[in-house]
Design a protein that fits this description.
heterodimer; A: 282 residues; alpha/beta; Rossmann fold; 2 domains; 9-stranded mixed beta sheet; disordered C terminus; B: 284 residues; two-stranded antiparallel sheet; 9 helices; 11 strands; disordered N terminus
């Protein structure tokens, strides 16, 4: 994919508007990229929650401009405690995604920018956060790109660092606890069920060499297996070879996000052929 | 004079009102993102932040927090993203070191027009310290420079970024894929290498042949050095910088910012921003 600036993406950069809207813990800051007037309108707005909003290698900035040049509106914004947004900085927690921030973004875009149809995309914790918005705004979301978020309450095998700190009794308790069947996070399971009930499409992307792939196997077994045929067709899975939960892995992930989001454009008559990488797709 | 995080501020805290205004401005024909924190204090300088090179998420937030604290202390502040950084336009592949200086000079002109300030105080973060040191030579009315964890040499800073790739791979339990020398060779051969979170291009690497002390040779204004490290004293490099500047007749304030709770000091810039505010008051 060409990440170089083009006259079309430079044009979208010139049209960008800084936004501020109210989140649950104060002001959230972002950049709204209006769709190119010359492009056929997608009548959809892509929302990228970020930590910070530029993303690594500025991929979210460039992706927003590329999609806007195609006719999508786009918003990238700093989640609470990151970038320019208010809030205390916290380590990302698998139990506490920030879906309320995404919901605040959707509601602001609806009220202030006349956007009514949304696509979400996120990587890792930001993916869990995007998914988390389904509980409250499922009807407004047409699709969500979910790249390699956590699934289980505990890492399989526990955290080695934490295990080292435990005393003998605690360690034994921990072993017993881990012997129980792994439990899916409410922060994954509850919004997943809201997604399944909605009409939205989704792409769940993992890679077979990442530890998170093991967590996702549980989701496949427990959640995906329960879907009816209609929902199963809407919720796609791609498992790539190698690793994507790495700094270097993100470029290919965002490229896939852009190509998948483009499929939603009404002007696109046929679904894009899948990339040349050999992937297991179900 | 040293001051540390534990030291109480010698000035009583006071809160001034300010407005925040986010806009794009033009530099060399492309839009650059900026935030103006405007106060009404007559005669106060505008404090312009020069950020580091390419990726560093903590520093961007540190700038935003610090700018508000400085505005609350009565000075207007100005943040901007140079070309190919953050929300601004431009490709990193095309950027040279001189481009960053040009953006800094254009940022100063724009910041003055937005705030009405005639004087500029620069805050340079890491690599941005070298950019700021060059900008003060181009921008008349530069009356102070604060160097936050300054990079002393552009070349060393970029080689250190290569070394971070080696450390990162070791931390993952992997054998380093390339040595720093091999990365340098690849950069020269291929024109680009991938570092942690950004690509480094030969064009930029070759254009960045400058040292902080050389750039500050003509500078005789008040200078603040803020060290963002866990150490309880200035590092050897920062102490050398301080002593050299004092020997040139400069007034130099050094601040140690050690952070708290074993967090990266860049996540908690509040105290160093307050210390910078106190230093700005003394300049006035």
């Amino acid at each position: 994919m060409n990440w170089r600036e083009t006259p079309a993406t430079l044009g979208r950069a010139r049209a960008e508007q800084p936004l501020v809207f109210q989140g649950p813990q104060g002001a959230l800051h972002g950049i709204f990229t209006p769709p190119a007037a010359a492009a056929p309108s997608a009548r959809m707005c892509v929302v990228f929650p970020g930590r910070p909003r530029a993303g690594l290698r500025r991929h979210l900035v460039l992706a927003a401009r590329i999609l806007a040049a195609d006719g999508f509106a786009a918003l990238r914004f700093d989640l609470r405690g990151r970038g320019e947004s208010d809030g205390d900085i916290e380590r990302p927690s698998r139990t506490d995604p920030l879906g309320e921030d995404v919901v605040a973004a959707i509601r602001h875009l609806r009220e202030a920018h006349a956007q009514h149809n949304f696509l979400l995309a996120g990587y890792c914790f930001d993916a869990l956060t995007a998914l988390d918005a389904f509980e409250h705004e499922a009807a407004a979301i047409s699709g969500v790109f979910v790249a390699t978020p956590t699934v289980l309450e505990e890492k399989p095998g526990g955290s080695p660092k934490r295990n080292r700190r435990l005393g003998t009794v605690s360690r034994l308790r921990s072993i017993v606890r881990r012997a129980r069947p792994p439990r899916i996070l409410d922060s994954f399971g509850v919004p997943f069920k809201a997604l399944a009930r909605s009409n939205a499409r989704a792409l769940f992307l993992y890679a077979d060499q990442d530890r998170l792939r093991e967590e996702f196997r549980v989701a496949e077994k427990v959640l995906f297996s329960q879907l009816d045929a209609e929902a199963r067709e809407r919720l796609q899975i791609e498992i790539w070879p190698g690793r994507i939960h790495t700094i270097d892995g993100q470029t290919a992930v965002i490229e896939r996000a852009v190509s998948w989001l483009r499929e939603f454009h009404p002007a696109r008559s046929d679904r894009a052929a899948l990339p040349e990488l050999q992937r297991e797709i179900s | 004079m040293y001051s540390s995080r534990a030291m109480p501020s010698p000035q009583p805290a006071r809160l001034n009102s300010w407005t925040e205004d986010r806009r794009f401005f033009e530099s060399d024909g492309r839009p650059l993102y900026s935030v103006t924190y405007r106060t009404q204090r007559a005669g106060a300088p505008v404090v312009i932040f020069c950020n580091s090179f390419s990726e560093n998420h903590c520093e961007g937030r540190a700038e935003a927090i610090a700018a508000r604290i400085i505005a609350a202390n009565g000075c207007s502040a100005f943040l901007y993203h140079p070309r190919a950084h953050g929300d601004s336009a431009g490709d990193l592949e095309d950027v040279t070191f001189d481009d960053l200086i040009e953006d800094a000079a254009n940022a100063a002109a724009y910041a003055r027009s937005r705030t009405g300030a005639s004087q500029v105080v620069w805050v340079g973060l890491r690599f941005g310290a070298i950019v700021a040191a060059h900008a003060i030579r181009k921008v008349a009315g530069s009356t102070g420079v604060a160097l936050w964890e300054p990079a002393l040499s552009a070349r060393d800073y970029l080689l250190k970024a290569m070394r971070h790739v080696v450390y990162h791979e070791i931390a993952l339990g992997e054998r380093p894929s390339l040595t720093v020398q091999q990365m340098s060779d690849r950069l020269m051969r291929d024109g680009k290498i991938s570092l942690l979170g950004f690509d480094l291009y030969r064009k930029f690497f070759e254009s960045a042949q400058t040292d902080l002390l050389d750039a500050l040779e003509p500078w005789r204004g008040p200078t603040l050095i803020a060290q963002f490290q866990q150490h309880s004293r200035l590092s050897r490099a920062h102490n050398h910088l301080r002593e050299t500047l004092i020997a040139r007749g400069l007034s130099v304030r050094a601040v140690l910012h050690r952070g708290s709770d074993r967090r990266d000091p860049w996540w908690t810039p509040e105290e160093v921003a307050r210390q910078t505010g106190v230093w700005l008051d003394e300049l006035a």
